[in-house]
Design a protein that fits this description.
The structure holds two protein chains of two kinds. By secondary structure, chain A is mainly beta. Chain A has strands spanning 5-7, 10-13, 19-24, 31-37, 44-50, 53-57, 64-68, 74-78, 87-94, 104-105, 109-113. In chain A, strand 7 (64-68) and strand 8 (74-78) form a beta hairpin. Chain A is globular. Chain B is mainly β. Chain B has strands at residues 5-7, 10-14, 19-24, 32-37, 44-49, 55-58, 61-65, 71-76, 85-92, 99-101, 105-110. In chain B, the strands form two sheets. In chain B, strands 2, 4, 5, 9, 10 and 11 form a six-stranded mixed β-sheet that branches. A five-stranded antiparallel β-sheet of chain B has the order 1-3-8-7-6, with no helix packed on it. In chain B, strand 6 (55-58) and strand 7 (61-65) form a beta hairpin. Chain B is globular and about 40 Å long. The chains are: A mainly beta, B mainly beta.
């Protein structure tokens, strides 16, 4: 186990609704990244938070937003859900170092938009 | 932006056969990481390679980073049913561990 926990594990929402997904990072990790993984594809980087600030963003529209809290846990919010938002949402925690660092992934939240 | 392509998409092997997945980029990569995702699971870190021409081994797994740092491979010797899953390469784009993943190679092993 990585120590990264996500909730909920599964979720069904209706098109147009809003959703909030949560992630608790591994102890000692101050960086949380969110990824979207569509069925049969590799994870796509959404954004990253470092010390409560957005530290980088992938090619996702503004209706994807996030937060990081002082305890380094994080939320991913998606507004105006679309059918194509159905995917596995993964968060990964890490600690920046002087070189590339290993990402520890949570088990993911499976979002289905109907 | 940076893209990494992975081949093949799928591979069926008989237990005991070898398996290789390849990761290619048109641009020089600063590093490469490999992850394994079991069916229904999440990506689990296997290894990272940083140096040109680097080769690392983990039991039956051999990882290589090309001399030009534009390609990488993962080779599994004598596959077992426990090797089943999807293998992803990923590279860090920019600072702070923002990963660009390949599309993955799904390995299926027939007992």
């Amino acid at each position: 186990e990585t120590g990264v926990t996500q909730s909920p594990t599964h979720l069904i929402k209706t098109r147009g609704q809003q959703v909030t997904l949560r992630c608790s990072s591994q102890s000692g990790h101050n960086t949380v990244s969110w990824y979207q993984q569509a069925l049969g594809q590799g994870p796509q980087f959404i954004f990253q938070y470092y010390r409560e600030e957005e530290n980088g963003r992938g090619n996702f529209p503004p209706r994807f937003s996030g937060l990081q809290f002082p305890n380094y846990s994080s939320e991913l919010n998606v507004n105006a859900l679309e059918l194509d938002d159905s995917a596995l949402y993964l968060c990964a925690s890490s600690t920046p170092g002087q070189g590339p660092t290993e990402a520890f992934f949570g088990q993911g939240t499976r979002l289905t938009v109907v | 932006g940076q893209q990494v392509m992975q081949i093949p998409q799928y591979q069926h092997v008989q237990e005991g056969e070898d398996f290789t997945t390849y990761c290619n980029s048109s641009t020089t990569l600063s590093n490469i990481q490999w992850y394994k995702q079991r069916p229904g699971g999440h990506p689990v870190f296997l290894i990272q390679l940083v140096k040109s021409g680097e080769v690392k081994k983990q039991k039956r797994l051999t990882f290589q980073f090309g001399e030009a740092k534009k390609n990488s491979s993962l080779h599994i010797t004598a596959t077992q049913t426990t090797d089943v899953g999807t293998y992803f390469c990923a590279s860090e784009a920019g600072a702070g561990n923002m990963l660009t993943f390949g599309g993955g190679t799904r390995l299926m092993v027939k007992p």
